[in-house]
Structure formats: C-alpha cells, structure tokens
From TrEMBL:
Pfam families: SBF_like. This is Uncharacterized protein. Gene3D superfamilies: 1.20.1530.20. Keywords: Membrane, Transmembrane, Transmembrane helix. GO terms for cellular component: chloroplast envelope. It comes from the Eukaryota. The lineage of its organism: Eukaryota, Viridiplantae, Chlorophyta, core chlorophytes, Trebouxiophyceae. The chain crosses the membrane at residues 45-67, 74-91, 103-124, 131-154, 160-186, 198-222, 234-252, 264-287, 326-347.
Amino acid sequence: MPRHRLQPRRSLQPLAATAAAAASASGSSKRTPLQALGSFASNNFIPLGLVLAIVCGWFFPAVGVAAAEANAQLVATVCIFIISGLLLQRGETAAALRATSALAYGLLAILAVTPLAAFGVLRLPLAPPEVALGLAVFCCMPTTLSTGVTLTVASSGNAAVALLLTVASNMLAVFTIPPLLSLVLGSGAGVANFDAAALFRNLVSTVLLPLLAGASLQAVIPGAHSWKKNHRKLLSYVSAVCLCTVPFMQVSKASAARLPLTPATLAMAAAAALGVHLVLLSANLLATRLVRFDPDPAQHVAICKAVVICSSQKTLPVAVAVLTQLSGVLGAGVGFAVIPCVLAHLIQTVFDSAVVSRWNAREAAGLPAMG
C-alpha cells in the first residue's frame, strides 16, 4: 500500500505581515511613494495598530477609559475568537493527524515546557513588578493564532501540522492556563487572591466557546465558507482592530491612574521579551535535532519548521484576555502588564520573520535550511 506523506501546503492565504513581505520586488518598483506607504501599512497593520494603541492610550486616555467602563473589551475579545474560529481551515488539519510524534512534541512544548520560562521571568529585576507579571503570563500562553501558520507557509514548512498545533493548543490552553498561572502567581508574583476556577470559566466563555462558534458557522450557515474566503482580508482587519482596542483600553486606564511609564521601563520590557523568545527558539531548535518526525528528510525538515515556529511563539489575544480577567486583582496596573505582551508579540514576529528569511536563503543556496 502506498504511503501517504504530509506535503507542505503553499496555498494558504497569508494572515500576517511576515508573509506579505514576500511580494515581488519587480511589482513594488513601479509603485508611487503613496502606494508603497499604503502597502506597508496594510502589510504591517497589526504591529502598527498595536504601537498606535499604546501611544494613544497613554496620551489620550479618556476614550479608552470610557470604552473600558462600557465593557467594550469583553465584546472585542469575543469578536476576536469568533473571527479566529471562522478563519480556521476545515479539513486541512486532518492530514496532520498522522504526524503523531510532531504533534506530541509540539503540544508538550507549547503547553507544558515553554511556560516554565515564567518562573525565571518573575525573578527578573523589572520595574514596576507588573511588567514581569505580564511577561510571565505571556509565557503560559498557547501558540499564535495566525502568525505561526503564516511563517510556516512562507518557509515551505508543513502547514497542516502548524494548523493542527494552533487549533489544538489554543483549545487545550483553556484547561492548562488556570493551573499554570496558579503555580506561577504563587511563586512570587504577589497576587494572593487569584481565582483559577473563575479564570477557567471566563476563558471558556470568552475564548473557547467563541472559537467553536466561529468554526461551526462554516457548517451551520449555507455559503458561510465561501463568504469567508471572499472576505478573508476584511475579517483579518476587523480582528486586528478588536485586538488593538484591548491594549488601548488597558493602557488608557494605567495612564488615567497616573502610573509612571518611562523609556527605561519599555526598554527593559523589550529586552526581557527578546531574551525569553531567544531562549524558547533556541531550545526548540536544539530539541528538534534530537527527534525524527519523518523518515523522509524533506518531510522531516518541513515538519521541523512548523514545530519550531509554533512551539516558540505565544499568542497575544489570549494573553490580553487573561490579563483582562486579572484586572480586578491588579487594578490599573494591568496596563503595565499588557505592554510586555504587546512588545513580545512584535519582537517574536519580526525576529522569526528574519529566521524564515535565513532558512529560505540557505535553501536557495543549496544548503540545509536549519543547519
């Protein structure tokens, strides 16, 4: 019987700026400066939006505070995960089920091993302490909802494995995050009245159920799948706007409370976020050299790319949703906790884009991509 092999998927539409940056240079040379600026803004919509959200929230907090008081962050969070569920590719994850060793490694790394970095983060001399807390929470998150798949496609990796790791880890994280944070917050974060059971209920209602609802829309509503394919970019923009509004509201509350935010705080948070990502990426690169995911060398490399990328990244929307639930404990200080998460998201996207470019350049030169 012929053996079916997982083939790297190249047909997925890019969801993030990193894949869009691979557009041909010949087309861009004919664009006007205004068109080039518009293209840059479109391709980098989420990073630019997050930076703008932090700046506007800090200097113009009134709107963000009013939106937070109206509970707009709950609406935004639910919308993010409904759209994320709607954008999931049905059927493509089934092919990845045969890559059992890759899935086992990826889920273990994402949900159990990489969160251990949170204990080290809490011991970093970051001020105010909410900065360390926010980055520690970020370490406990599942993989990114779209960037990991996008980068896997851009690197000619196994997109089916990346998709299944994304879907499975984000659903399982609803059950793993509360006990993980109980351990982390009990190790020195000083949040004495953290309620893991309440967090679990909130994650189910604001993350898992909206994600499942969005995914089920494709099967329940006739024509929803085709409509999604034709409006994928619009849905991505709406999701990005919702994502940016939550940090905007949290930072606005921190600014209104006159909490001090200095360039030194931002620099330390960025340095810590970069350090954490380098540790996670290096650990996964080394670990995958010790494992054989497929006897076919090309398939093994394709799967390794998916596993390394997805196991090294953490998702911002779930982190923001978790920190929003902790706002009753942290108060206005949750605005500080959100900032390192945003910085970590930006840093991992830019850094991993460079890693993918290096892999592609090595393959083009006839060298092993991950050598």
